[in-house]
Design a protein that fits this description.
Layout lengths: L4 E12 L2 E13 L4 E5 L6 H8 L7 E6 L2 E2 L5 H11 E4 L11 H12 L5 H10 L15 H13 L5 E5 L7 H18 L2 E6 L2 H4 L4 E6 L2 E7 L2
Parallel strand pairs: 3-8, 3-9, 6-7, 7-8
Antiparallel strand pairs: 1-2, 1-4, 4-5, 9-10
Helix pairs in contact: 3-5, 5-6
């Protein structure tokens, strides 16, 4: 089976004044279709930078990323934008919901932006799986943090992306809501075969994945199956 994500000798170096600061130092990584992988490490180790490079949000200084067989370095900005729209879903620590829209509108707008119009079957499948059917008429201010994050996840997967990238998705949630969101992600992986890469510094969060990659100082130092 070919990797859906392949990172080859990824370097990302930022220029701060006259000093070069490497955030990634030759990262090698393969993610197979259907895997749930967490990348764990302390703040500043480069894990979020790696996620943004893999998702095509920023370019590496050296090395390359193959995303579903597409070499991001050989694509134009417009083509990378289309690739992200069609094949990548993003979930962040901040929910980034539109406050004037209810949950239904926040999810449906992603389908319209995608360009294929509203798909009621997919909408029903996703909102039922994420336990949102009773909250669709509520705006973000009327929902708990866990509910808002589930809406954000629904928005990220509504267009059936090949890969879901989640950057500390439970970072703003209490323990109960964190467990709820992580169980939902596990369900998406198991029932829909959704490939997931999740960034965290929390070993309890990392344990939900099939495999844990540990990062330190811009490098992946080991990768082990989760317990």
């Amino acid at each position: 089976m070919d990797p859906i994500v392949k990172a080859e000798e990824l370097w990302k170096v930022y220029r701060l004044g006259k000093v070069d600061v490497p955030a990634l130092r030759g990262v090698q990584m393969d993610i197979l279709p259907g895997e749930f992988v967490t990348i764990m490490g302390p703040s500043g180790c480069g894990k979020s930078t790696l996620l943004y490079v893999v998702g095509g949000l920023t370019s590496p200084s050296r090395g390359r990323v193959l995303l579903d067989g597409n070499d991001l370095a050989k694509m134009s900005d417009a083509d990378r934008t289309l690739l992200r729209r069609n094949k990548v879903g993003f979930v962040f620590q901040r929910f980034n919901l539109l406050p004037t829209l209810d949950a239904r509108g926040n999810i449906a707008i992603a389908q319209h932006i995608h360009g294929n119009g509203f798909d009621p079957h997919r909408f029903d499948l996703v909102t039922r799986m994420l336990g949102l059917r009773e909250r669709l008429d509520h705006r973000p201010a009327e929902m708990s943090g866990g509910e808002q994050q589930r809406v954000a996840i629904a928005r990220a997967i509504i267009n059936e992306p090949k890969i879901l990238l989640a950057d500390e998705p439970t970072g703003n949630l209490d323990t109960k809501n964190s467990e709820s969101v992580l169980k939902m992600l596990t369900q998406l992986n198991q029932q829909l075969g959704q490939t997931i890469i999740l960034i965290t510094h929390n070993p309890e969060v990392a344990a939900y994945a099939h495999r844990v990659l540990h990062m330190r100082d811009g490098q992946i130092v080991d990768g082990i199956p989760a317990d």
